[in-house]
Design brief:
With 106 residues, this protein is of the alpha/beta class. The chain has helices at residues 23-30, 69-91, and strands spanning 16-18, 41-44, 51-56, 59-64, 98-100. The chain has two helices and five strands, in the order E-H-E-E-E-H-E. The termini are far apart. 32% of the residues are buried.
């Protein structure tokens, strides 16, 4: 079932997700993935909450905008974790999602 804000389906996000606040920064980070933006899949753009999934040096990775402030970040992280649980159930895997916040200098 898609999440309310991220509109994520199981498998949309990689196990590693970078969380910049700014949608332009998410796009800039995704452009550094293998194959640039053409090599990524935009998995979300609802409410300018851009999310991309691709690979970096062959490793599956996603980047998802959080927006401004702790409440918006909490919503995104909660929905990413719910999506990871849904993905684990659907695929029979017991893996979760690694959620990490990118430093502001990125």
């Amino acid at each position: 079932m898609p999440q309310l804000h991220l509109r994520a389906e199981p498998g949309d996000y990689a196990p590693i997700v970078l969380l910049p606040g700014d949608p332009n920064r998410a796009t800039a980070i995704a452009s550094l993935f293998d194959g640039g933006l053409d090599g990524t899949r935009r998995v979300n753009d609802h409410r300018l909450m851009y999310g991309y999934t691709g690979t970096y040096r062959g490793v599956p990775i996603s980047v998802q905008t959080t927006g401004m402030g702790a409440p918006a970040t909490a919503i995104v992280v909660e929905e990413l974790l719910a999506s990871a649980r849904d993905d684990s159930s659907a695929s029979g895997r017991a893996e979760g999602s690694g959620v990490a916040s990118a430093p502001a200098s990125w």
